[in-house]
Amino acid sequence: MPIVLATTEPGEPEIFASLQGEGPSTGRPSVFVRLSRCNLACHWCDTAYTWRFTGDERPHRGGESYARKANQIAMDEREAAQAILALVPDRLVVTGGEPLLQAAALVKTLNLVRSVQPRLHIEVETNGTVEAPRSLDTLIDQYNVSPKLQHSGNPASLALVPERLQYYANDPRAFFKFVIAKPEDVNDVLVLKREYGIPAARVQLMPEGTDSQTLRHRMHWLAPIAQKYGLRVTDRLHIHIYGDLRGV
Questions:
Q1: Which residues belong to the annotated binding site for S-adenosyl-L-methionine?
Q2: 78-106, pLDDT tens digit by residue?
Q3: What is the DSSP string of 53-98?
Q4: Is 47:6 a contact under the CB 8 Å cutoff?
């Protein structure tokens, strides 16, 4: 079974070395692999090329659709593992899209990588709606969980799955990263934090935005809100350094 990745350009898989730009590992050198496909459709998604292919009418503020052939590539798991290992990773970040949709192929790929780099730290970025089978879960050192709030445009019945949220709330490997577009969004975070007993130390608020000016503007009002409720904030470091580009 091949693993399906996003591309940086037609025919080139989005596997790259950079700094982690978000969440609890911000600033750490990492190797990234971006998988294609997603079960949600956030209208502000900055990686819509992983899911909004021609014919997909789910709303997105950019309105652009992407040719599947140019923006998606299927690789043999062994080939994908070799491409990852060529970058000599100490820390691997599996992102998307929603990577857990490809659990079987991901298990094989990660096992191949770990057979060469047994001490590799593996992070998976997920929207928190999909269960990882045990064969995959045991390979993961850290979950970066980003539940999608009302402003994402996804129905709560799809985006906020109670048993999944409770699982991650109880798992010390899981850190929650909430995208915040306006001050009122924090109220939704506080409700989820209280309902599922998510420890404040594992909650981070991140301003929504794909340019430095927007991120800085929102951080000005987000920082004091986070301080008021004893929550953490995370910036989007890669946006400030590289801009809104693929493969960085």
A1: 44-46, 97, 146-148
A2: 999 999 999 999 999 999 999 999 999 99
A3: BTT-----TT---B-HHHHEEEE-HHHHHHHHHTT--SEEEEESS-
A4: yes
Q: Which CATH number fits domain 3-175: 3.40.50.150, 3.20.20.70, 2.40.40.20, 3.40.50.300?
A: 3.20.20.70
Judge contact between 15 and 79, C-beta under 8 A.
Answer: no
Query: Can you read off the two tokens belonging to residue 231?
Result: 């929550």
**Amino acid residing at 178:** F
Question: Measuring CA to CA, which residue among 44, 40, 51 is closest to residue 6?
Answer: 51
Whole-number Å distance between alpha carbons of 117 and 138: 16
Contact partners, residue 237, CB within 8 Å, separation at least 6: 19, 20, 21, 22, 26, 27
pLDDT digits (tens, 9 = 90+) for 43-91: 999 999 999 999 999 999 989 999 999 999 999 999 999 999 999 999 9
Task: Tally the residues of the chain.
Answer: 248
Residues placed in the known binding site for substrate: 19-21, 34, 95
pTM, to two decimals: 0.97
Give binding residues for Mg(2+) as ranges: 47
| Known binding positions for [4Fe-4S] cluster | 38, 42, 45
Residue ranges for the known binding site are: 19-21, 34, 38, 42, 44-47, 95, 97, 146-148
Is the separation of the CB atoms in 5 and 14 below 8 Å? yes
Name the residue ranges covered by the structural domains of the chain: 3-175
